[in-house]
Amino acid sequence: MRATYKINVGYFSGGFRMIRSVWLAALLAASMLVPLAPSPALAEFRDIWPYGRTHRLAKILPTVVNITMIKLVSDGGEGTPPRRVENFGSGFIIDPSGIIATNKHVVAGMLEFTVTLSSGATFKAKVIGVAGNMDLALLKIDSDKPFPAIKWGDSDKVRVGDQVFAVGNPLGVGESVSSGIVSGLNRNIKLSAYDDFIQTDAAINHGNSGGALVDMAGEVVGVNTAIFSPGDTGSIGIGFAIPANDARYILDQLRQYGRVRLGWLGLWTQELTADMAEGVGLAKPRGVIVAQVGVDTPAAKVGLREGDVVLAFNGQTPKDGRALSRMVARSKIGTAVPVLIWRDGKEIVLRATPAEWVDDSNATEVKAAPVRVGSTDPKALGLQLMSITGETREQFKLAGDLGGVLIAKVQPNTAASDKALFAGDVIVKVQQEPVAAPEDVERRLAEARAQKRAHALMLIRRRDEQQWVSLPIAAAK
């Protein structure tokens, strides 16, 4: 009787071998018809396979460049001329005309730039653009012939576990490739208000900065930017790359305007936790809560207030403050967009008009504030509250126009000390309402309990910053 082989041949070892042989034979036959490798000899299997590593990386390597920079270093006494010191970095060609993407910190403070291609050809380069808000810059090299340019990927499709390759010039040894996986997404390493880094365990060392993080399709999904390296020990498998979609937007701005033009509202936000959501009457956390609004900013002009919860900006729901920051930054400057907020137990739509972020070093764009959980009420918190007077204003060095209720003392080993409140902090609002005396604080907490809230919110001001603190009040007697 003739044997019959099914498609799912898991229980037939002989059937599996036959199908595997037919599959390999078909691949070899295809290779004879359409040779993919440039060698005239019979191509090796790794080059024939359309999605094999060698085949993909062979197309990537000519687009990634090594950058050698010269920096003047003065380490002698007065009258000693500075030394010329070489530094190394990486970049990749994004346009056939010779435009190269790299990190801002690669070019900062450098005098001369030499770009070396994978072929060994060298070119003098010049800086044509530097982003003020993110660690990105553009270089330019010139030639009579077009350069190979890299293909951008969609970083929004990247998932944890995806295989990636880091291509660059680690420690100046020359073009190198390391492989790994995506270890995490949306990492905040506090380089900017927009941090959304891709974390990878592909080896990244000094000199890899500005190089390409490439996916399995041979497309750039990130710009290698930073590593976590205790004691400057080199790569320990924790590297970070700016997502390609973020980088591409910033680099396109540099190419179009010669600078980065970002939208700006002028506010601070923080994460909305489950207990804070309950405190403002939301069934579950969504969006971000406004902690501070700058004076005479677009946010103030449209009527945004501390305690408002931004549920959506231009139809998109921000998952954190940095996500909202990126949404605002990419919005069209001078054009009103809908902002859906939660205030006083209902949804309200405002129309905000982003202005241009002129000076990112002084602007008050969205940044995440730490959230600490508190407890019960002033008497049980271990707090001594006082009204703000001229004497207490001078004693605690409070701003002349600052209103609220002063925290004059914090008892150790109490709920107040556990949530890191300090003498000199000022309670500005309780449950989104301003307070001016200790009695106002207690009244607002009592009202929250009467509404059967399990948590209440206090807006705390410390020096020039504000943040919301959530207080569990259901157990208070």
Please outline what is shown here.
Helices cover 21% and strands 32% of the residues.
Describe this structure in words.
With 477 residues, this protein is α+β, with helices and mostly antiparallel strands. The chain has 4 domains: 1-50, no CATH class; 52-260, Thrombin, subunit H; 263-356, Pdz3 Domain, CATH 2.30.42.10; 378-472, Pdz3 Domain. The chain contains 12 helices and 25 strands. The chain has helices at 13-33, 45-48, 53-60, 104-107, 244-257, 274-279, 298-302, 321-330, 378-381, 390-395, 415-418, 438-450; strands at residues 64-73, 83-95, 99-102, 112-116, 122-130, 137-140, 163-168, 176-187, 197-200, 212-214, 220-227, 239-243, 263-264, 267-271, 288-293, 309-313, 337-343, 346-352, 355-356, 383-387, 405-410, 426-430, 433-434, 455-462, 465-472. A 6-stranded antiparallel barrel has the order 1-2-3-6-5-4. It has a 6-stranded antiparallel beta barrel with strand order 7-8-9-12-11-10. Strands 20, 21, 22, 23, 24 and 25 form a 6-stranded antiparallel beta sheet that branches. The longest helix is centred in the N-terminal third of the chain and has 21 residues, at 13-33. The radius of gyration is 29 Å and the shape is elongated. The chain starts with 12 loop residues before the first helix and ends in a 5-residue tail after the last strand. Residues 1-38 and 360-377 have low confidence and may be disordered.
Mean pLDDT: 81
How is the largest sheet built, in terms of strand order?
A: 1-2-3-6-5-4
Structural category: alpha+beta
Share in β-strands: 25-35%
Largest sheet: 6 strands, antiparallel, barrel
Query: How many domains in all?
Result: 4
Total helix count?
12
Provide the CATH top-level class of the largest domain: Mainly Beta
- Strand element count: 25
CATH topology of the largest domain: Thrombin, subunit H
| Architecture per CATH nomenclature, i.e. the level-2 architecture of the largest domain | Beta Barrel
Helix content: 10-25%
Regarding quaternary structure, how should these chains be classified? Answer: single chain
Q: Shape from CA axes? A: elongated
Measure the end-to-end span.
Answer: 86 Å
Radius of gyration over all CA atoms, rounded: 29 Å
Query: Low-confidence stretches at least 5 residues in length (pLDDT < 50)?
Result: 1-38, 360-377
